[in-house]
Write a structure and sequence with these properties.
The complex is a heterodimer.
Chain A lengths: L3 E4 L2 E5 L4 E7 L5 E7 L6 E6 L5 E4 L2 E5 L5 E6 L8 E8 L9 E2 L3 E6 L1
Parallel strand pairs in A: 2-11
Antiparallel strand pairs in A: 1-3, 3-8, 4-5, 4-9, 6-7, 7-8, 9-10, 9-11
Chain B lengths: L4 E3 L2 E4 L5 E6 L6 E7 L5 E8 L2 E4 L8 E4 L6 E5 L8 E8 L9 E2 L3 E5 L1
Parallel strand pairs in B: 2-11
Antiparallel strand pairs in B: 1-3, 3-8, 4-5, 4-9, 5-6, 7-8, 9-10, 9-11
The chains are: A mainly beta, B mainly beta.
Amino acid sequence: GQQVMQIPQYQHVQEGEDFTTYCNSSTTLSNIQWYKQRPGGHPVFLIQLVKSGEVKKQKRLTFQFGEAKKNSSLHITATQTTDVGTYFCAGRLGSGNTGKLIFGQGTTLQVKP
Amino acid sequence: NAGVMQNPRHLVRRRGQEARLRCSPMKGHSHVYWYRQLPEEGLKFMVYLQKENIIDESGMPKERFSAEFPKEGPSILRIQQVVRGDSAAYFCASARQGAVDYEQYFGPGTRLTVT
């Protein structure tokens, strides 16, 4: 079936270091979304990427969608303790899809102050 | 404008009992998705519903699980004869439309524990 793989599973960084998580799909996606989930919380929407090669920025976060629309990345510059949580990518398939999201396994970020 | 509401937030059931999880979508949203999250794992799609219709239930286990979204009232995810493996967090999400371009808003989840 369709799969979305995300690496790494865990990442520990020192506050101020950069962080990147990568997402790869076995099939072409119509779009990809990124969510953040704090410990004990629920996923919160961060951004959606639709176009091939699209790059979007939110303050210290940079999101990219690959040219083939099969991979994506989230990069955080100069991490802060408030960035702690699990980051999920979630892809939507193309034609005929019902809008369901296929989630990656998530990357859990720990930031040491 | 209230967000997506789910209740109960925590539910404990003994093996063999029934679990009913409720989800009220955001105002103006008529599309509801249910996801299950096991500890240390991502979210797995279960079912997508519109009012009075099941659109996609490809992620639902074949037995014991059912979902509905009636014309009036919340969406209900029902698990009959629960087993320990059903212990998980169940999230619902709502969207204004089901098309590919609309983001989903997640509720706080129901943490189900089967003892």
